[in-house]
Design goal:
The chain is mostly helical. The protein is built from 21 helices and no strands. The protein is globular. The structure holds the ligand CC(C)(C)CN1C(=O)[C@@H](CC(=O)N[C@@H](CC(=O)O)C(=O)O)O[C@H](c2cccc3ccccc23)c2cc(Cl)ccc21.
Length: 376
């Protein structure tokens, strides 16, 4: 942590935490509470991932530009000048202030590509000047953290290009897409946890559990954001499932198709609930309190979201969000794995108690709920 002798954060690091608060609302505090070297490593990892996600989400970037951007994104971490100023997305700030993330110590491999984007229509002069802030801090991290973050960005960027212009087909493809955008995050985080010595080497080695931690969060996001994504012309619900309930994904938003839509929704939630045992197994291995909180809070938010969405028509007509008060209550109550199990148990039981008699997947959902309950 680059500090001057008054123990102050360096200006570039201060700015990174400002961007963290800008881009992740309630989660920034959880990252700032991380112990030791993990705090900065995960702050930077989070910002770099936000920048990458902003490129993927930006529908104003044509694919012939976006594909190389995604594939080469990890190289920007060694390029002290890279910047992109043509994003219209709300999180554009981390893209435009990207050099702050990756400037401070030129990476070992000197493949510095002078790749930068300046065809900016934006007048964000301030952000342009300040861009090296984000770039800087990545290279101030210990090489082991840089290698993890760079490796994950490389794999994620390449994976994103696979799904750029098409929806998700089979359930296998759903798992593949979620692996690229969230499973890899879990794998990278787990390697950072072990590298910091705050968690055992096993945590960083077990990619299956780490991957499924990410899949649980991402599948929950995709299930919850049905309408928002459909309205933006994005299809993340797997066709292998929704194809049984409608001709087009958007048809499920029609009131006449309400019953079919709910059966589809319930089937996807059942698929996500299959991951609960692995998520609990992963969290059971954690020993550092700040790492445990960091991992447990998104998980309990996700199970609460799945319960809120189960058999709920509001998913098809609006966005279902956990109220802030409920979220804060849950965030306070996840200090150990027994409490997390209790929360998982509560919400899974709530779902099990509401399985509609005529739901085509009722039997499967009961099975998955009882398997999850057996671990809680
Ligand atoms: C897509 C995603 C689920 C990976 C996003 N993702 C998360 O959702 C954040 C939570 C978050 O950002 N919440 C925001 C949501 C929002 O902004 O609306 C909030 O303000 O509450 O948590 C995850 C995250 C945290 C802890 C362990 C994880 C293991 C595997 C995968 C992801 C893990 C995350 C960790 C990192 Cl380092 C980067 C991104 C994420």
């Amino acid at each position: 942590m680059p500090r001057n002798n008054q123990g102050e954060l360096s200006p570039t690091l201060k700015q990174c935490y400002k961007y963290l608060k800008l881009t992740s609302r309630s989660f920034a505090a959880v990252i700032q509470a991380l112990d030791g070297e993990l705090r900065n490593a995960i702050c930077i990892f989070y910002l770099v991932l936000r920048a990458l996600d902003t490129v993927e989400d930006d529908m104003t970037i044509p694919n012939d530009v976006k594909i190389p951007m995604l594939r080469h994104f990890h190289l920007n971490l060694q390029d002290t000048h890279w910047s992109f100023h043509d994003s219209k997305e709300k999180d554009k700030i981390v893209l435009e202030d990207f050099p702050t993330v990756s400037l401070a110590s030129l990476c070992v491999c000197l493949c510095v590509c002078e790749w930068s984007f300046h065809d900016s229509k934006e007048k964000d002069k301030i952000v342009l000047e300040d861009f090296p802030t984000i770039t800087a801090e990545f290279q101030a991290l210990a090489p082991v953290y840089q290698e993890v973050i760079s490796d994950i960005c490389c794999k994620m960027g390449n994976g994103m290009t696979v799904f750029l212009d098409r929806g998700v087909g089979s359930l296998h493809e759903w798992n593949e897409y979620c692996h690229y955008v969230a499973g890899l995050v879990g794998i990278g985080l787990s390697r950072l946890f072990s590298a910091s010595k705050l968690e055992s080497p096993e945590v960083g080695r077990d990619e299956r559990l780490a991957n499924n931690m990410g899949l649980f969060l991402q599948k929950t996001n995709i299930i919850r954001d049905y309408l928002e994504d459909v309205l933006q012309g994005r299809e993340f619900w797997p066709k292998e499932v929704w194809g049984k309930y409608g001709r087009k994904l958007g048809d499920l938003a029609e009131p006449d198709n309400r019953q079919q839509a709910l059966h589809c929704l319930n089937e996807l939630i059942t698929n996500a609930l299959e991951l609960v045992p692995d998520c609990i197994a992963y969290m059971t291995r954690l020993h550092n309190q700040s790492v445990f909180n960091f991992c447990a809070i998104p998980q309990v938010m996700a199970i609460a979201t799945l319960e809120r969405c189960y058999n709920n028509p509001a998913v098809l007509t609006g966005v279902v969000k956990i109220r802030k008060g409920e979220a804060v209550k849950m965030m306070m109550g996840v200090s150990n794995v027994e409490k997390v199990k209790a929360i998982m148990h509560y919400f899974t039981s709530q779902i099990e108690s509401r399985i509609p008699k005529d739901d085509p997947n009722a039997e499967r959902t009961r099975e998955v709920c009882s398997k999850a309950l057996a671990c809680t």
